[in-house]
Write a structure and sequence with these properties.
This protein has an eight-stranded parallel β-sheet with strand order 1-8-7-6-5-4-3-2. α3 links the parallel β3 and β4. The longest helix is centred in the last third of the chain and has 18 residues. The chain is an alpha/beta fold. Bound molecules: D-xylitol-5-phosphate and zinc ion. The site of D-xylitol-5-phosphate has 22 residues, from β2, β8 and α7.
Length: about 220
């Protein structure tokens, strides 16, 4: 599956409803929602009440990225708030297998996220629990940071391992520093879901979305 997942963290929160409507009218299907607790990452973003309230107006697929400690505490609540997919950090889960299983049991797609320095080995025994792996391509916590070049090899290696193990359908999402300069690099390496915050919401949104649509189309036509 090839998708752009605009990251709400970079939206103008004063005009959030309007901007989410605009994304839908432009043909976007996904919305990336970063939940931060000020503990797993230094910053605090938004949580349940915000997600619940945008759910009332939006048809977008809610791709919720939990940058929080003890994410297992929020699985049911996030489902009730309207999350379609829940991604937890491997670094924040003492019982990753169980937490991933509970996400699917709650009726959501399950994702696991890895910080840049976390090895791929940490998820090798949970492939069967996964719909998606989110590779952080910056250190999590803030929008607008630069893509870490070492992540290109990590994406390539993960795609190779998933395919070799028979998990061709598990998607790789990349998050952080994805823009006009780095989109082709990550797509070529095997990512298929691109999170983009500043590269979508800063400047001319319509033109930004056109850029990503064209790049994603170029790869989806040619591959998976
Ligand atoms: C960072 C968040 C990202 C962030 C990406 O910790 O997980 O989703 O919004 O922002 P950009 O695309 O500006 O790097
Ligand atoms: Zn994110």
């Amino acid at each position: 599956m090839y998708e752009l997942a605009p990251s709400m963290l970079s939206a103008d929160l004063n005009r959030l409803g309007e901007q989410l409507n605009f994304l839908e009218r432009q043909g976007c299907r996904w919305l990336h929602i970063d939940v931060m607790d000020g503990d797993f990452v230094p910053s605090i973003s938004f949580g349940m009440p915000v997600i619940q309230s945008i759910r009332r107006e939006s048809h977008l697929f809610f791709d919720v990225h939990m940058m929080v400690e003890y994410p297992e505490k929020y699985v049911e609540t996030m489902k009730q708030c309207g999350a379609d997919q829940l991604t937890v950090h491997a670094e924040a889960c003492r019982h990753l297998d169980r937490t991933l299983a509970s996400i699917r049991e709650a009726g959501m797609r399950a994702g696991v996220a890895l910080n840049p320095a976390t090895p791929l080995e940490n998820i090798q025994y949970v492939y069967d629990r996964l719909d998606m792996v989110l590779l952080m391509t910056v250190n999590p916590g803030y929008g607008g940071q630069s893509y870490l070049p070492a992540m290109t090899e990590k994406i390539r290696e993960l795609r190779k391992r998933l395919d070799a193990a028979g998990y061709e359908k598990v998607d790789i999402e990349v998050d952080g520093g994805i823009n006009r300069d780095t989109a082709d690099t990550v797509l070529e390496a095997g990512a298929s879901i691109l999170v983009a915050g500043s590269a979508v919401f800063q400047g001319d949104m319509e033109d930004n979305l056109r850029f990503f649509r064209e790049r994603l189309e170029a790869y989806s036509g040619g591959g998976r």
